């Protein structure tokens, strides 16, 4: 049994505001240990449940946040940016039996601690075939295309609610309860590590590959907080205006869909001005 852990940071234990997740800040340095604790607990739980291999794909910001030396020796970690499938890189190789979303969060335009979709503020909403999409929903559709189920999701309590929409059978662990975008009632790392490990051990039984599920025609629509960002996004072939501050594109597969999404967000992030957005 091989498990892929897609590890984001905004939904980690104790994380509540930008300084906790922005590389180079003192709080980020502190929260790296909390983030690593969550990921290691998931790995230990999967090994408890019978996994033979756990690969962790860093999925936050620079994708260089986890403390490798604090992970169990059986874990392998994929770190660094510019990966073909970004947050779920590795799911496409045909040898992954289940994927876990650790440290995830809710999507842009919704309630949740540090809620966003790829870009912290510039994107105000994302929809996949008309359904509002978090990073979890987008990545779950990519995994489904390769027959890989989402078996575990951790984050705040609203992230766990969001997961019921895209992975209703997955085990979920709330490491904190949402109060506002920048505030939460947090559990201690000792408690969350125990909860995550227990849930992962149980989730291992769900790691059974199934027939690939293709979305057919995948239409993604994005809404931005400024019109010039929507205009910048249309530089990507196939991306066209769809409304005020909105663009949309259609892909035949989620593989192409998520890669186009990454291209759009990369172009848009380069068009953001420091003071005016």
A few lines on this structure:
With 277 residues, the protein is α/β, with parallel strands linked by helices.
Question: What's the arrangement of secondary structure elements?
Answer:
Blueprint: E1 2-7, H1 26-48, E2 53-58, E3 75-78, E4 98-102, E5 123-128, E6 131-132, H2 135-145, E7 150-156, H3 157-166, E8 171-180, E9 183-186, H4 189-203, E10 218-224, H5 227-233, E11 240-243, E12 246-251, H6 254-270
Parallel strand pairs: 1-2, 1-4, 2-3, 4-7, 7-8
Antiparallel strand pairs: 5-6, 5-10, 8-9, 10-12, 11-12
Helix pairs in contact: 1-4, 2-3, 5-6
Overview of the molecule:
There is one protein chain. It is built from six helices and twelve strands. The protein has 277 residues and is α/β, with parallel strands linked by helices. The strands form two sheets. It has a seven-stranded mixed beta sheet with strand order 3-2-1-4-7-8-9, with helices on both faces. It has a five-stranded antiparallel beta sheet with strand order 6-5-10-12-11. A hairpin with a 2-residue loop joins β5 (123-128) and β6 (131-132). α2 runs parallel beside α3 and α5 (227-233) crosses α6. It starts with a strand and ends in a 7-residue tail after the last helix.
């Amino acid at each position: 049994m091989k498990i892929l852990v897609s590890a984001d940071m905004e939904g980690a234990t104790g994380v509540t505001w930008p300084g906790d997740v922005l590389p180079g800040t003192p709080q980020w340095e502190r929260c790296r240990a909390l983030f690593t604790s969550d990921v290691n607990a998931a790995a230990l739980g999967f090994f408890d449940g019978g996994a033979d291999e756990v690969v962790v794909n860093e999925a936050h910001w620079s994708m260089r946040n986890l403390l490798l030396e604090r992970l169990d020796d059986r874990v392998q970690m994929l770190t660094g940016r510019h990966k073909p499938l970004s947050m779920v890189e590795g799911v496409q190789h045909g040898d992954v039996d289940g994927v876990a979303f650790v440290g995830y969060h809710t999507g842009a335009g919704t309630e949740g601690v540090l809620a966003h979709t790829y870009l912290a503020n510039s994107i105000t909403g994302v929809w996949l075939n008309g359904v509002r999409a978090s990073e979890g929903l987008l990545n779950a559709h990519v995994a489904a295309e390769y027959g890989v189920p989402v078996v575990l999701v951790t984050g705040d309590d609203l992230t766990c609610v969001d997961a019921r929409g895209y992975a209703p059978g997955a085990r979920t662990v709330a490491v904190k309860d949402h109060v506002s975008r920048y505030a939460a009632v947090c559990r201690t790392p000792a408690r969350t590590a125990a909860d995550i490990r227990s849930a992962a051990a149980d989730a291992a039984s769900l790691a059974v590959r199934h027939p690939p599920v293709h979305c057919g025609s995948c239409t993604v629509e994005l809404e931005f907080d400024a019109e010039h960002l929507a205009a910048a996004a249309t530089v990507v072939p196939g991306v066209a205006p769809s409304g005020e501050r909105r663009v949309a594109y259609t892909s035949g597969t989620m593989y192409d869909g998520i890669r186009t999404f990454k291209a759009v967000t990369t172009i848009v992030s380069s068009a953001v001005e420091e003071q005016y957005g």
